[in-house]
Amino acid sequence: DVAFDYDRGERTTIDLGLLDPQGFRGWSGGNKRTFFVSANAATPSYNTGAIEAGTWKLLLGVPNVREGISAEYSATITLDCSGASKIPPQDATGAGWFVGDLHAHSGHSDGSCNNSAGESVACPAFVSAQIAAERELDFVALTEHNAVSGHATHSELQAFFPSTLFLSGREVTTFFGHANAFGTTEFIDFRLQSATGYGIHELQNQVDDLGALLSINHPGSPSGEDCMGCGWVLEDTDYSRIGAIEIVNTGFVDMPRGRAHIAFWHDKLNKGFRITGIAGSDNHDPSRPPRQPSAIGNPRTWIYADGLNEAALIAGIRRGNVYVDASGGGVTLTDFRVAGAAMGDQLSLANTDGPLEVSLGWRSAEPLLVRWLVNGEILESSRITEETTGVLADGSTGYSAALSLPSDSSLWIRMNLIDERGNTRLLGNPVYFIP
User: Fold this and answer.
1) Is the terminal CB of the chain with fewer CB neighbours within 10 Å at N or C?
2) CA-CA distances (angstroms) from residue 163 to 90, 132, 179, 245?
């Protein structure tokens, strides 16, 4: 990072550029006072590339200085080895619920769209960014297959679409499973080979060292010849270091493959791993209409975070106060409590006397039913009646009930919202029980 300033008295002008050990790295003239360069991203006017050892120089041009006048300048150079995104935080709204799409592709991998001549081409990241902004998403992650070249576009996209945060990430695409790594622009080695000793543990070590979050994508998909690497078959995965699982991919929740993603997640929850369920459109063509499965923002993930910035959103995913809107924008929660606990919280059974008091609030254009699940099994005693629903002060639908747990061995409870046709429209994350 470079922050440059100078004395502008007497109409003095100093232009700015950068030389790395190999030569020219960029030139912004007089239009930027700050810039950054990194391996995979840079301020417009400057080139991405390795930060090589050697002598780096600021390139100063002085197009105007009056005779006999001198001017002082200062340059603050900051080196950051964390690999974190350099995209400016978007913190204007403070803490709250933020909604976005955590899995999409542009032409930096296999995303495509039609050009002005009607021909299918590698789709510019700008098109996906524009659609995300038009659909009023607070954030979007363009997660290319192993490629990090797209991060070079994020700085200019962020400036052009200031209300939509562009998360750094990529889809680590191996022959044995896919996973998004959020929170770093650095390359992550995807070449899992027993011959080299580089396996899933080594990959997880790299992700952890970068401070990133690893989220398993579409784990219930087929693998092998049917779809090489699409399903997650890495049995030696350390699930204590998995931050999230994509439980809804492309919007098909109630199809066999969609149910397989959720069953995979439930299995890990029942083994004691606290892994947050998220969603991703897996969009490969941003021109898809908004209500079509796999359109940008369908499905979408809601995250409660301390602010609209990358670090806060990733921390929010880790905490688990997250839910999935599988309708592509048709359902939002306004309230959720299980004996006072929010999603991602833990609740002591020892301090719970009798049935659990639960409450929900939601907005939807169609009637919905609540389905509670304990350890992945439907809690039959929670069927909805007219006495359990009402209208809250904010106009949303309210629901309250008292639920009796089936046994003292209950590990977690969560809920789904279901429409009258039996389609799952919203999926909540668990509240966890402790003795």
Assistant:
1) C
2) 8, 10, 27, 26
